[in-house]
Amino acid sequence: MIALDDIDRAILRGLQHNGAARASDLGKKVGLSQPATWRRIKRLEEGGVLRGRRVVLDAKKLGFDVTVFLGIKLATKGRVALEDFERAAAAIPEVQLIQHVLGLYDYRLKVVARDISDFERVLRRRVMTLPGVGDVEANVLLSDEHRKLAI
Amino acid sequence: MIALDDIDRAILRGLQHNGAARASDLGKKVGLSQPATWRRIKRLEEGGVLRGRRVVLDAKKLGFDVTVFLGIKLATKGRVALEDFERAAAAIPEVQLIQHVLGLYDYRLKVVARDISDFERVLRRRVMTLPGVGDVEANVLLSDEHRKLAI
DNA sequence: CCTGAAATCCCCCTGTA
DNA sequence: TACAGGGGGATTTCAGG
């Protein structure tokens, strides 16, 4: 939790609207000069609030037509078991996201594959053979919509 | 699916490594001049492969200490029911991601809240009152790790 | 079509008040 | 904080492959 004023929040909102926004444009929106805006962005980066910029790729246009979320329950849950699982899951190229969660499942994996048969290959040869895997539940992604943090 | 050569893929890999990378830096990596690299990036953007750049914010440092994934099963699933649900879910500020999925659940929502009691408020007053909501399952996020698309 | 080189524009970034 | 200058990236133009 870091002290932010209204202008910082306005800058963050602007950056959420457009991750490639320039300091000069943001400055006009928030009523600040370009250098002042740039220094605030720098401060937000150094403070860790702004962790970086990520490109958004269109998986479908790259030939990955199938995205599946897997809920995974581990059979054994010691510290070593968690580390083994995470390391092995990270070695699967099709795994885009590894989330350690608390609830009905222990992990959630986001898996991309070229098509359903490609996904079946990944599921059977890679996911089901991960160390400690117990129950696995799958949800195929149909569509998704991102929304901004209300700050 | 768009035709990409090895250089395009190398550029995309470089951009996944650093979303703020400059055309000149990328050019050095892929063995191309700065204008040629810049034109390829532009082409990837116009072709929709590169959908944009997004800033990564640290939710914890902004005071959102709790992230929960909800799996939601709808009681009724007509076209109108889906649209009503999506519209109402999008009106909840704490909902960061709305995923329409196929499987055990119909929707997955990513919800951020300031703390557990704030999450309880969102869950009881906003989520449970969404139109058509049936079963709800929750997973609290402990940690997550993003990985790059293998292209 | 693609490329690289050069030239221009404009923004970032920094020093300074 | 704003202002001003140098440096460098973004963008266009041009010529060659």
TrEMBL record, chains A, B:
HTH asnC-type domain spans which residues? Answer: 4-65
Keyword Lipid biosynthesis applies: no
Keywords carried by this UniProt record: DNA-binding, Transcription, Transcription regulation
Query: Can you tell which superkingdom this protein's organism belongs to?
Result: Bacteria
Q: Please name the Pfam families in this protein's record.
A: AsnC_trans_reg, HTH_AsnC-type
PANTHER family for this protein: LEUCINE-RESPONSIVE REGULATORY PROTEIN (PTHR30154), TRANSCRIPTIONAL REGULATOR AZLB (PTHR30154:SF34)
Protein name per Swiss-Prot or TrEMBL: AsnC family transcriptional regulator
